[in-house]
Amino acid sequence: KLLTSAGTSQSMSAKVDMYVALEPECKGTHMSRFLEVFSSYSEKISSSNMCSLASKIKEKLNAPSAEVIVSFTYFQRKLAPVTGSEGFIDYEITLAAKTSPEPTCFIEVSAPATSLCPCSKEISKYGAHNQRCRINANVRGSENIEIDDLIRHIEQASSCEVYSTLKRPDEKYVTEKAYENPKFVEDIVRDLAILLNNDARIHWYEISSE
Fold this sequence. Notes:
The chain is of the alpha+beta class. The chain has helices at about 30-40, 50-60, 120-125, 145-155, 170-180, 185-195; strands at about 1-5, 10, 15-20, 65-80, 85-100, 105-115, 130-140, 200-210. Strands 3-4-5-6-7-8 form a six-stranded antiparallel sheet. The chain is elongated and about 70 Å long.
């Protein structure tokens, strides 16, 4: 279960990778101990306790260092921009932590968005070419960075957000919003970099838009 910033939990199916470094005299590690530790956290996974999880693995396996990576699909309830029609959007999330050289946590979010081509708009008498893009941000920072915070940064950098449920007024909104906000993928990355630079909780990032 993932603990969300709203104080609720969301059940998920996750891919989990756990590693420890071995001392030179050790032939292997105790595989069952990985599962013992992870089982104690499986009902309360969050961006804020990943470093604690990695440290616990290191301690339990008496290892020089440890690393844990949890990847899953996160569903967020989202309202259409005008009518408020309800739907869900899915985001690909990776939470990672390592203990060496010091406890460090990462949050990676991959989110769908809309981009509208400035060149197409410039050369056309009316209309413009728009397409779906996927924006990816992997950040390192303080423990109070939430998945939802990073999603908001990513979507704010796009030409327009993606919604799963749209009525006629919503269709008008997203069409005009993208048209008034044309961006190449390079523009999206630059604008996202500005947003992340201005967030004091974020100390490092790697971003892309495809």
